[in-house]
Amino acid sequence: MPFPLLTSIVFLPLLGGLLILFIPKERTGLMKTIATAATGLALVLAVALLLKFDCGGTAMQFVEQLPWIPQININYHLGVDGISIGLVFLTALLGFFACIGSYGIKERQKEYYFLYLLLNTGMLGTFLALDLFLFYVFWELVLVPMYFLIGIWGGPRKEYAAIKFFIYTLAGSVFMLLSILALYFTSNPHTFNMLELAKSGSALAKGFQIALFIGFYLGFAIKVPVFPFHTWLPDAHVEAPTPISVLLAGVLLKMGGYGFFRISFPILKDAAIYFALPFAILGLINIVYGAFVAMAQTDFKKMVAYSSVSHMGFVMLGLASMTVTGFNGALMQMFNHGVITGGMFLLVGVLYDRAHTRDLNKFGGLGAKMPVYAGILTVFTLASLGLPGLSGFVSEFMSLMGGFAAFRLITVISVLGIIITAGYFLYMIQRVLLGPLNPAWSKITDINRREIFTLAPLMIVIIAIGVYPLLILNFQSPAIINLIQHIGGALF
Amino acid sequence: MNVLLSVKYFLPEIALTGFAVTALILGLFVKRRAFLGIFCLLGLLCAVLLMPQSYQATSPLFSGMLINDSFSEFFKEIVFLVIGLVILVSMGYKAFSDEDAGEYYFLLLAVTVAMMIAASSNNLMMIYIALEAVSLMSYILVGFLKTDRRSSEAGLKYFLFGALATGVMLYGISFIYGLFGTTDLAEISRVLAAGNVNIFASMIALLLIFAGLSFKCALVPFHMWVPDAYQGAPTPVTALISAGPKAIGFAILIRVFLKNFFPLFPGWSEMVSVIAIITMTAGNILAINQENIKRLLGYSSIAQAGYILIGFVVGTALGIQGMMFYILAYVLMNIGAFGCVVLISNRLGTDYIEDYSGLSKREPVLAFLLTVFLLSLAGIPPLAGFFGKFLVFAAAIESKCYILAIAGVINSVLAIYYYVKIIKFMYLAEPRAGLPVSVLPVPATPGTGAVKLALIIALIGIIVAGLFPGLFIGWISASLL
After folding, report:
1. How large is the average pLDDT for residues A100-120?
2. How far apart are CA A290 and CA A284, in angstroms?
3. Which whole-number Å values give the CA distances from A43 to A4, A87, A332, A377, A454, in the listed order?
4. Is B338 exposed, middle or buried, given 0-12, 13-18 or 19+ CB atoms closer than 10 A?
5. How confident is the model at residue B335 (pLDDT cuts 50, 70, 90)?
6. For residue B54, what pLDDT band results from cuts at 50, 70 and 90?
7. Is the CB of residue B73 less than 8 Å from the CB of residue B54?
8. What digits encode the pLDDT tens for the residues B81-112?
9. Positive/negative CA dihedral, A31, A36, A39, A40
10. Considering chain B, what percentage of its residues have pLDDT values greater than 90?
C-alpha cells in the first residue's frame, strides 16, 4: 500500500489536537510546539504533494478509497487535482503561519490549540474529499471549532458574532444536504461519488438541476459570501482573534467557491449555464458594493473584511463567464486572495497588539516609527488593490477578461470596483502611515521577528506569482480546461 | 404456541420480575442505593444473557398474545440500554433518599418488564395492558419525590393526561373489536385485506389508537404534559420517560400501523406528515424561550419525535431503518444530556440555564460532555444524531416527500439556536456571582462515579455510532419487521 499522503495531511492536525488534550494545562509551551509541529508537518507534506503532483494530468491523483458505510455506498474517498491542490497548499500554508501567529493567545490555550487543529482538519478534508457525504462531514466539522474560536477568544461582541456565524452557515449547509441526498437518489446506481455524479448529472432534467443547484448555492453562497448573505462576515471577522480572521478570510471563504468548482458546475452544468447571468450580476454587486462599504469603514479590520466581500466578487464574475480564462482567474483569485488577505489580517493584528485600537482615524505617521511594518503593509496593500507585478492583479485581470467576453456591460461596471479599491486602500495608507505622528504612539515598537517570519513567506508567494503566474496556472489550467470541456466548451 | 412452551422464550421477563421483587424486599433491610443499583444491573445482565439466542423467527407466544421476533428483540435491547443507563444515573442523584431505594429500583425493573412486553405484543389488548403498566409505573416514578410539591404535581398531571389518552385508545380498540371481531393483529390484517370492513369506521378506530400512542411519543397535540412532567420529575426519571416509553411508543406505531394498517389507507400519510411537521416546529419554537434546562430538553425531545416521525410517514425500509437508528441515537444523547443535568444540579442546586454560566471553567469535563450531547441532538456531524437525521431525511427524499424534508432541515436550523444557547452560557459567559466558582466547591456526591460511567458509555456510543454507523445499520436492517 502506498503512503497515504492525503490522509496524513488531513489528519495530522487532528492527531496533534488529540495529543494536546492529554497534556496538563500549565505546559503551554509544549502545546505550542505540538500545534506548530502538526501544522508544520502538514505543510511539509503539502509541499511534497506539490512536488510530486503531475501538472499535465487532469485525472484525480493520490486517490485513497476505502468503504466507510457500505450499506448506502458511502466511501472514505480522497483525491487531489488541479482545482484543489492550490487550496490545499493555501490551507496548509496559512494553517502553519496562523498557528505561529497564535502564540499571542494567553488564555485557555489547551482548548484553543485543540479547536484550532480540529478546524484545520476540517478545512483540509473539505478540499480533498471526493465523496459528497464525507465532504459534508468535513464541511460541518469546520463550524463547531470556529464557533468556539470566535466566541471564546473574540472581541467584545463575540457571542453575537459567533452565534450569527454558526446559524448562517448551518442554515445554508442543511439545504446543501438535501441536494446531496437528491443527487444520491437520482443516480443509478446510488452513489455519493462526486466523479461519478459529474458523469451522470447531465442526464437530469433541467428543472430538477435548477432546484438542486439552488440547494447547493445556499450552502456555498453563504460561505463565499455572496450578497445578500454576506452580513455574518464583517461581524465574524471583526470579533475573531487575529489568527482566526486569517483562516476565516484565507480559507473558509474559499470553501464556498471551491464548492462551485467541484460540485455545482461539473455535476449540474445545465443549471450552471442557466444561472450564469445572475452569477455575473451578484459578482458585480459584491465587487462594487463591497468596495463602497469598505471605503466607509473607520475600523481597520472591518475595512479588510469588506474588501474580502469585494474581492470574492471577482470569483463569482470569473465563474459566470464560463470561459477558460475566467475560470482560471476565479480559481487563482481564491488562492491569491487567501494569501493577501491572510497577510492583511496578520498586519492588522500586529498593529492592534501594540495600539489596542483599530480605529483608522486614531493612527497617523506610523511610517516613521515602524518603517519595516510600513514597508510590509504597503506591499500587501498594493497587492490587494491589484498593482501589476503582484499576484492580485493577475487573477483579477483574468477574471475580468473572462467576464468581458461574456458580459460586457457588467464587467465594465465591475472595473469600477478596482478604482474604488485603490481609493480606500490608499486612503488607509495615508491615515495609518503618513502625516504627522499621533503623539499617543510615540512609544510604539516596530514589527518583531516572529511576525516577520509569518509574513515574509506570504510576500514571497505574492511576488512570485505576480511576476510569474505560470507557477500556479501550470497546476490548475489543465483541470480547468477539462472542466470547461466537460461543461460543453466555453459558453461565450 | 401454548403457555408451557412459551415460557422458555419468556425467561428474561420472568427473571427480571424476580429481581424486581427481590429488590423490593432487599430494600427493607439494606438502605444503600449503590448496593441496590448494582443488584438491579445484575438483574439486567441476567435478562440479557437469557435472551433467546435463536428462535423461530416469528413464533407467537402465549396463544398469539406476544411475538418474539428480531424487531421486538431490537427494542428490548434499546430498553436494556435505557434502563442500564438510568440505573447508573439514579445512583448519583442527590435528591433521592436511601430510604426508598428498594421501592424505586423495584419500579424501574417493573417498568422494564412492562416495556419488554409492550415491544413484543402482537395483540391490541396486550398492547393496551402493557402500555398501561408502563404508564402506571411512570406516573409513580414521576411523582416519586413525595416531599417535593413540583414532583407530586408533575405526577398528577402526567397521570391525568395519560388516563385520558389510554381511555381514548381503549375506545379505539373496542371499535376495532366490534368491526373485526378480534384484537389479534394478524387476524385484523387478514380481515382488512379481504376487504369487507367499513373503511370509514376503521379509520376512526385507528385514529383513536393513534391518539393514544401519540401521548406516549409526545406528538403534538398530545404533548402538553411534557414540560411540566419533565421539569417536576426527578431527573433520572425524566431521562427514563423521555427515552423508554417513547421508543416503545414508536415500536408499536411501526408494528401496528406500518405493518398492518398503513398500506390500506392512502390518505393516512398526509395526515401524519402534517403532525410530524407541527410536532417538530412547535417543539423547536417553544424550546427557544425556555429558561429551565429540563423544560428545554423536554420541548427539544418533542421536536426530536417529530423528526423520527418523518421515517414513519415515509414507511419504506430506509424510513424504518432511519427511525430505529434515530431512536438508538436519541436514547444515548438524551440520557447523556439528562445525566449531565443531574451532576450539574448536584453541584449547583439549580436547573436554570443562566446558572450554567461559566460552567466550562468550573467543570470542564462536564461542560464538554454536555456540549457533545447537545451538538449530537442538534445534528452536527460526525455524531450519531446527525446520522439519524441524515437517514430520515434521506428516506423522505427517496420517497419524494420534499416538503417534509425541507421542513425537517428548517427545523434543524431553528433548533441550533437553543442548543447553542446552552453551550454559549457554559463556554462564553462569565460565572455568575453567588455560585461556586472554584473547581471543587463541594465534595462529590456519592454515586457520581456511576453517573460518569453512564455518561462515558453514552459518549462512546454516539461517537462510534456517528463515525461508523455501518456497524449499527447492519444490526438494524437485520431486525426490520
Report:
1. 90
2. 10
3. 15, 12, 20, 25, 14
4. buried
5. very high
6. low
7. no
8. 999 999 999 988 888 877 888 889 999 999 99
9. negative
10. 52
Residue A178: list chain B partners with CB under 8 A. 393, 397, 402, 405-406, 409
Q: Is the Cβ–Cβ distance between B208 and B201 less than 8 Å? A: no
Contacts of B249 (CB under 8 A, 6+ apart): B213, B216, B217
Residue type present at position A91? T
> Would you say A291 and A300 are in contact if contact means Cβ atoms under 8 Å apart?
no
Q: Do A71 and B474 touch (CB under 8 A)?
A: yes
- Chain A closest-CA separation from residue B320 CA (Å): 15
Q: Which three cell numbers stand for residue B410?
A: 428548517
Amino acid at B147: T
Chain B residues closer than 8 Å to A177 by CB: 390, 393, 409
Query: Quick one: pLDDT at residue B440?
Result: 47
- pTM, two decimals, is 0.93
Interface residues of chain B, partner chain A, Cβ below 8 Å: 375, 380-382, 386, 390, 393-394, 397-398, 402, 405-406, 409-410, 412-413, 416-417, 420-421, 424, 427-429, 468-470, 473-474, 477
A112 phi, psi to nearest 5 deg: -60, -50
Q: Are B394 and A72 inside 8 Å of each other by CB?
A: yes
A443 grid coordinates: 512609544
C-alpha A283: how far from chain center: 16
Cβ-defined contact of B424 to A159 (cutoff 8 Å):
yes
> How many residues are recorded in chain A?
492
Three-state SS for chain A is CCCCHHHHHHHHHHHHHHHHHCCCCCCHHHHHHHHHHHHHHHHHHHHHHHHHCCCCCCCCEEEEEEEEEHHHCEEEEEEECHHHHHHHHHHHHHHHHHHHHHHHCCCCHHHHHHHHHHHHHHHHHHHHECEHHHHHHHHHHCHHHHHHHHHHHCCCCHHHHHHHHHHHHHHHHHHHHHHHHHHHHHCCCCCCEHHHHHHHHHHCCHHHHHHHHHHHHHHHHHHCCCCCCCCHHHHHHHHCCHHHHHHHHHHHHHHHHHHHHHHHHHHCHHHHHHCHHHHHHHHHHHHHHHHHHHHCCCEHHHHHHHHHHHHHHHHHHHHHHCCHHHHHHHHHHHHHHHHHHHHHHHHHHHHHHHHCCCEHHHCCCHHHHCHHHHHHHHHHHHHHCCCCCCHHHHHHHHHHHHHHHHCHHHHHHHHHHHHHHHHHHHHHHHHHHCCCCCHHHCCCCCCCHHHHHHHHHHHHHHHHHHHCCHHHHHHHHHHHHHHHHHHCCCCC
